[in-house]
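Complex 558.
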Amino acid sequence: MSRPAAAIVILGTGSLATARRIQQMYPASLIYGLAERVAGADRVYTDFGDNLRQLYAQDTPIIALCAAGIVIRTLAPLLMEKGAEPPVLAVAEDASAVVPLLGGLSGVNDLAREIAAGLGIAPAITTSGELRFGTCLLNPPSGYVLGDVELGKRFVSDLLAGEPVRIEGHAPWLACAQLPERPDARLAIRVSSDARAPTADALLIYPRNVLVKLTTAVTAQVIREVLLEANLAWQSVACVVAAETMMADAQLRDVASELGVPLRFIGSDEDLAPHSLTWREPEGAVALGVAPAPVVIEHLGRARGRLAVIGLGPGAAELMVPAVKAELARANDVLGYETYVRMAGPFRDDQVMHCTDNREEMQRARHAFELAAQGRSVVVVSSGDPGVFAMAAAVLEALHASSDPRWHSVDLEILPGVSASLATAAQAGAPLGHDFCVMSLSDNLKPWNIIEKRLDLAAEADLALAFYNPISRSRPWQLGVALEIVARHRTAQTPVVLGRDIGRPGQTLRVTTLGALTPDQVDMRTMVIIGSSTTCTFPRVDGREWVYTPRWYGQKPE
Ligand code: SAH
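Predicted structure with S-adenosyl-L-homocysteine bound:
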């Protein structure tokens, strides 16, 4: 059995020891702990129910160290919907019981047996078929698919009622099952890629050994017709294969997703030679290759590479968008400035981290394309939003400058994040509630006279101002000059917000005024927001202050 990347969910520190033992069996798994009660978890959550339901919906195997009843009640609303059904188990926090709850068809009993063996106890298996035959007939190993679950359940109950069975075709995993086999039995387990109508007296299991090679993108309907003519079952299709030159073809992608199979790309037909395929319609637009055994997709050609440039948000996990979390989970490679890569983690053993210096942006972008062009799933991390003084523009610049078709074929996506100015503004109230201007005060990549000019004009235009990169050791005097320019157009009472390490441990938020602001109150981890002429403040009940800029300008509307 492959080692799943499960979520081990715990509610208190008392479960940590057992969680760690299970994690050792599945090193790719992550321990999820309740924020206020568990220190030392890989991931924290604040709401048990939301967290569990999100994991379930994402098809993540769940090992919950708590009462079975809690898990059942939490997931119950999702069970009516047809969707993901990952294995879900409850494990007693003292490691005395392992109870498979859900996911009978996705291997929950195998998982329960493995965990129980690791903990030195007996699993609470309740599935009759498994107890009797030593295997779940409805859950064939990877590379094989079951034809029809409902017919399958009836078939297994007939077997449990005492009927004998015969096996047709090659089913190596059934060799050590305790099945009541008889050559003349009415019931048959049929393992074959032949297209057959489902019947009650046969359990149809399809090996995924057929590949569909396309020389041009056709519809799924055309592929189904060609399969039918060749008497091959659509369930046996392992993947759609096409030439690397077709990698960015959207229609091809749609066809593969409609068939529910992966898409692989080859340089030439030579790449298929090791798979001993027998061809049907080899010259047609839809050629069918049949392999003697299930095809191992990872060994066949390569996938279309993916490159996602993501924004982590300011730091706190709750402020990271779900699409970014999902992207991090699927990544093979993670690139970025070391601080941000660490913030995006922890990562599984199979994920490769490439930490670089913050200044090597173009080099990092090119490295990311090289990895993605090999068919890998690559993530480039930025803090906040990747499009705000961060990696997205560098990645696009690298692509723009490249004429390499492999780079242009990469599935490139930019996923947004909560930028520091927005995270800081939200904590202070709404200082950016009206028109505002965002600037980086760094003159590393632009001349200082441009910065001065923009500051002058933006301040004159009475825009609220948000400064990124306000100061650093190598740029000590610039902020002072910037404040002088702003002061030409604003009163000393203009509210100023300083957010430092917002959304990170030790964050501070300070509300002051332009007159009282000096550069020594600011460092490179600070966001500076300077109000416009209409920005105002008033006290909060806790003694601090709210800051906001009204949405109207000029005359207050009635
Ligand atoms: N892409 C990032 C900005 C990178 S520029 C974003 O969208 O937020 C780096 C600057 O952003 C820092 O010098 C600081 O001014 C600001 N910054 C980034 N993270 C911050 C945080 N957590 N709190 C306050 N300011 C932050």
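The chain has five domains: 7-126, 144-207, 210-302, 305-418, 421-548.
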